[in-house]
Amino acid sequence: MVDSNQIGFGIGVHGDKKQVNTVFSNSYYYLQDNTRGKGIYTYDAKNSNRLPGTLWRNADNQFTAKYDGPAVDAHYYAGVVYDYYKNKFNRNSYDGAGAPIKSTVHYGKSYTNAFWNSYQMVYGDGDGSTYPFSGALDVVGHELTHAVTEKTANLIYENESGALNEAMSDIFGTLIEYYNNQNPDWEIGEDLSFNRQGFRSLADPTKYGDPDHYSKRYRGSNQNYLVHTNSGIINKAAYLISEGGTHYGVTVNGIGKEKLGNIFYRALTQYLTESATFSQMRAAALQAATDLYGAASAEVISVGKAFDAVGVN
Ligand SMILES: CCCCC[C@H](S)C(=O)N[C@@H](Cc1ccccc1)C(=O)N[C@@H](C)C(=O)O
Ligand SMILES: [Ca+2]
Ligand SMILES: [Ca+2]
Ligand SMILES: [Zn+2]
């Protein structure tokens, strides 16, 4: 029996209809997308903590039950993220060599998070106060960007390099949301909450208690705050580079999302090292902008001003 590529019909977490690439094999349809790299595979942990769980399958190629929603979105959004990196930077999957992309949904019981564990993405169902975590494209983009980071700068997940790691995931999660162009914004995780409230904001990190200036960074020892809170400083710089604005008296001329993505992708893949500090991120972004647009370019000036505005020298 030869496997065959199929197109299934799915309904996502938010009741939105979408087609999913599947494979028909031995009388079952699997959430396996053979059209991208070496494939995109979506699994079911069945509310256990066992990974990856079982490859998602059914007998009719219709993924329309409520229980199917998180799998439909994890599968479909992983494809969008794959397309972003391929179309924008000619990067074939997170390793550049078409690595299979694996996601598991229904992880744990009322698990209110999502993560990349060096092998795959993992999504919880939320605890009833949020939607399942794969139901947001910026979250899926966030997690898969951790895989890109790991294969490139491999930023150590603590202190300033950890905050850079988190910021890269929020920034590219947002750029991917704009690429998909469905209710794009500079908030993170707004599609997870019933009241549309985000978890973080790149436009104004202080909206959720995160710092928007280096002088306001969290200096304690809790690594979770160090990486998820201090990312606000770099997120704000990225926002200013793209959209412009005057921040603590420093005026930045915006150069747009495309150029932001080009500069940060080049910094991430060519210049940042695993122990990079915020100051080294400034230098990496300036060097990347210089490579791409020229030493005295408006883009280089905007990058410098944005890091000035958030107090990173
Ligand atoms: C084992 C916990 C691992 C946390 C680290 C993962 S990569 C992470 O950062 N997850 C995101 C999920 C997310 C993304 C966008 C929007 C909402 C939630 C995250 O930000 N987690 C926060 C809630 C946290 O762990 O504090
Ligand atoms: Ca949005
Ligand atoms: Ca968003
Ligand atoms: Zn993260």
Automatic annotation (TrEMBL):
- Give the protein's cofactors: Zn(2+)
Nucleotide-binding among the record's keywords? no
Superkingdom of origin organism: Bacteria
Keywords recorded for this protein, A-Z: Calcium, Hydrolase, Metal-binding, Metalloprotease, Protease, Secreted, Signal, Zinc
E.C. designation(s): 3.4.24.-
Q: Does the keyword Magnesium apply?
A: no
Which residues are in the Peptidase M4 domain? 8-150
Domain annotation Peptidase M4 C-terminal: ranges = 153-312
Q: Where in the cell is it found?
A: Secreted
Q: Which family does it belong to?
A: Belongs to the peptidase M4 family.
Explain the purpose of this protein.
Extracellular zinc metalloprotease.
Q: What is this protein called?
A: Neutral metalloproteinase
Question: Which part of the full protein does this chain span, and how long is the full protein?
Answer: 211 to 523 of 528
